[in-house]
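Help wanted!
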Amino acid sequence: MYICSMYSKELVKGTLNVIVLNLLSQNGRMYGYEIFSRVKELTNEKILLKDGSLYPALQKLTKLGLLTVEEEIVGGRKRKYYNLTEEGTVRNQEYLIEIKDFFQTMSIVLSPKTIKA
Amino acid sequence: MYICSMYSKELVKGTLNVIVLNLLSQNGRMYGYEIFSRVKELTNEKILLKDGSLYPALQKLTKLGLLTVEEEIVGGRKRKYYNLTEEGTVRNQEYLIEIKDFFQTMSIVLSPKTIKA
DNA sequence: TTTAACGCATCGTTAATCTATGTATCAATA
DNA sequence: TATTGATACATAGATTAACGATGCGTTAAA
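Answered by r_m:
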C-alpha cells in the first residue's frame, strides 16, 4: 500500500483522529482497511490515509479508551473491528465542535476581504 | 509573551504559512508582531500565534524566496517589515486553493449524513 | 506464478511547531 | 524609581503526529 494524498501532509495532520472517530460514530463497527477505503471513497481519493498512520492511530485511540476492538477472521483474513466507547462518542463531539469552529475561524482569516481595524 | 490558542496544536499546524502569506497579500507590508496582533484580532483571540513559531516561520519563508525583509527602527524599536515576492504571491494562491479544497473535503467526511455506497 | 487487493504491524525518521529563555525599548503605574 | 506589561525579535532544545519503509500472511485474478 503505497499511496499519497493530494494534500500536503501538514494540512491533514491533526485531522486523523476526528476522521476515524466520526466515521465510527456514523457507521458503527468498522475495521481499519474499511476506514481507509471509506475515506478514499468519500473524498474521491483526495485523502488516502497511510496505513503507517491509521493502524497506530487505531491502537492509540483504543489505548486511550475511546475505542474497543474485536478480532475476527473473515474470508481467511484477520480483521480488527473497532467501535466507539461512550468516552469516544463524547470526544468525537468535542472534536467536531472544535474543528468546525476552527474552519470557520480560518475562513475569516483567509477571506479575501477583511476589514482593517 | 506567553499565550495559548483555543485550538489544539495539531489542528493549527500546517496553517501558519498560509495565514502569514495571505495576510501579507491582503495588507501588504507587515512586521512580525503586527501579524500576531492582526490574527489575534481577526480571530477574536482564538488563534494566538506563538512568537517561537511565527518568527522562525517568517525567516524560513524569506529563505525560501517567498518574502522580502526590510529592517527599520520605529519608536526606538527594531522592526522587520515583510513583503510577498512574486513567488510568494503564486504560492499563496496555491495554498489558498489547496486549503479551501481540503476544508470542503473534510466537511464531506465529517458531515453527519454521509450516504453509504 | 505473479500481481494486485486485502489486512495488519512496527521501527526509525522527519519536520513543524512549541517551550523556555534571552535581549532590549517604551509607557504606565505604584 | 522600580516594576509591570506591551512592543519586538531571536534561538536552542524538546515534543510529537504522522510518515516511509518494510515485513508478514491471505485470497483472487491474470
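OP: Thanks! One thing I noticed: Chain B has one domain: 16-99.
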